[in-house]
Amino acid sequence: MATLVDPDFRARLDALGERYGATVPGAMEAISTAVSHCRNEDADLDSLEKLHALLHGIAGSAGTFGFKVLGAEARRLEQELRPLLGKRPADAPEWPALAARIAQYLDWAARDPKAPEFDL
């Protein structure tokens, strides 16, 4: 049986990647806002859940559209965040250090979210 080849596949995937790239600044802003909220003393049990969901979204989609490292780093941070779920950020001693690592990720992503490596 012959394999069907779509001659426009690469061009369509590249176009989808460009559209995805246009959403990255907004997604990073949403993560930044969630981190800021988690730093507030009134952050509740759902605060880290919301941040986790945002990181999970990037981790699951970025690589598909050519943002491999952006997605891999989001996955790493998401996994670091997982043990804190169900806690208030103020009650998680690990939270400040993780918040700092997420801030580094956001700074890196602002420079070049399609960079081939995560460098600080």
Nutshell version of this structure?
This protein is mainly α and 120 residues long. It has helices spanning 9-39, 45-61, 68-81, 95-111.
3D architecture notes:
With 120 residues, this protein is mainly alpha-helical. It has one domain (25-111): Four Helix Bundle (Hemerythrin (Met), subunit A) (Up-down Bundle). Helix content is 66%, strand content 0%. It has four helices and no strands. The longest helix is centred in the N-terminal third of the chain and has 31 residues, at 9-39. The chain starts with 8 loop residues before the first helix and ends in a 9-residue tail after the last helix.
Structural class: mainly alpha
* Helix proportion range: 55-70%
User: What distance lies between the first and last C-alpha atoms, to the nearest angstrom?
Assistant: 49 Å
- Write down the overall geometry: elongated
CATH topology: Four Helix Bundle (Hemerythrin (Met), subunit A)
Percent of residues in beta strands?
under 5%
The mean pLDDT is 93
Instruction: Count every beta strand, where a strand is a DSSP E run of 2 or more residues.
Output: 0
- Report on the biggest sheet: none
* Rounded Rg: 17 Å
Can you tell me the CATH architecture?
Up-down Bundle
Element string (H = helix, E = strand)? HHHH
In DSSP terms (H or I, runs of 4 or more residues), the helix count works out at 4
